[in-house]
Amino acid sequence: MIHNSFTEENYLKTLYILSAGHGEVNVNELSKELGIKMPTVTSMMKKLAEKKFVHYEPYKPLRLTEKGKKEAGLIIRKHRLTEMFLVEKMNFGWEQVHDIAEQIEHIQSAELFEKMDELLGFPKIDPHGSPIPDRNGKMAWRSYEKLSECKIGESVKLSAVINTSSEFLKFLNTRELLLGTKIKIKSIETFDRSMVISYGKRNSESISHVVSERLLVEKPA
Amino acid sequence: MIHNSFTEENYLKTLYILSAGHGEVNVNELSKELGIKMPTVTSMMKKLAEKKFVHYEPYKPLRLTEKGKKEAGLIIRKHRLTEMFLVEKMNFGWEQVHDIAEQIEHIQSAELFEKMDELLGFPKIDPHGSPIPDRNGKMAWRSYEKLSECKIGESVKLSAVINTSSEFLKFLNTRELLLGTKIKIKSIETFDRSMVISYGKRNSESISHVVSERLLVEKPA
DNA sequence: ATAAAATGTTAGACGAATCTAACAAATAAA
DNA sequence: TTTATTTGTTAGATTCGTCTAACATTTTAT
What we know:
2 copies of one chain form a homodimer. By secondary structure, the first copy, chain A, is of the alpha+beta class.
């Protein structure tokens, strides 16, 4: 089991995340997401194609192979198990764990992550509500809806967040918007699509479209 | 606080370990320990000298600067806190943790290691009996003696091990030689310097010189 | 349908960390 | 005290991951 470089792992992971849904990614998108110039991305794609991780044809969108999906899934598994471990076992806040997990996801040690999994009781989702891939890198996609797509009067449960940046999560902390929070939509402004919602002890909090778009919710069964 | 590469950190750490005592290291020793050819080591020494981490003069032994010692001490701190955390909080055996810690020691996150330290109750030694440097990279050297240098009839306490390789530690496991074990020296063979010792329920275990040389002991106060 | 804009590729350069081959200095041995 | 051995350095090549500049293709807009 010869291993891939840190760099290759980052490309694979990002490719996986960006291709969620449609299954395809442009060189350009990948370039922007990674903060790496397009020519560099192109050459890395050729390398990963050589290694059978991606399907690459000039001028066509990028697609991960099955092998690539598995590899990427396993990296994401390591990332999310780490985030969960940091929050549950080391008392970090959900806004603190992303950057650390970005680094620990590259640690080469099956045992370390198996141990985390075990100590955590084999969690299915991470602290941001994202599914944790299984030992085969398989991810159980959930069908959440964006809060921004809900209608006035609906009652939903906050189940996941899209952006895991520290700033966004700190903002949610100040508004006491935690996973599991029951939210009711009171009104929506048409001109900027901001929403007024009520939840917990807060009866009329206003949140911008930028925020509501990043909040994934479930409707009560 | 701009950071050093993974590679530079490994040079610094190894330099620190090898220069324990005399304070000097040869290019050749360092080269062998790192498994990196001498010319490469020379050029890295020039780079680290440029950064004021080592004193380098052609054909002279290498010495860490104070800045270099601090930097190296902090890396070793991260390594040893990690080993302790893995053993104490994640149920790893002392023979399993070295390789994982070799990787985690390079994680860039003061908080992670502060949290480990805190959760562990600010330990002073790691699972192999080595001192954990403080937040300034300062290490409290202990004056242990090698078991191989003790005399017949002496009673000592096993306080640290020199080699932290998995193989050696597994061997100690099979002999039930744990840190803290009280050992009495029953006899010493002159031709191969092997020892017969008694401890716990074992009344006459024979250990080779290669082993006794790697066991650090304390004499009862 | 043609021009403009966006996207993608090729070619060539660069820094980091490594190597080998050849040479130089220091140390040990004869 | 010469010579041999060991240790250390210089020079030049290689690989990886990155870049910029120039060119090619595809998509969008006029």
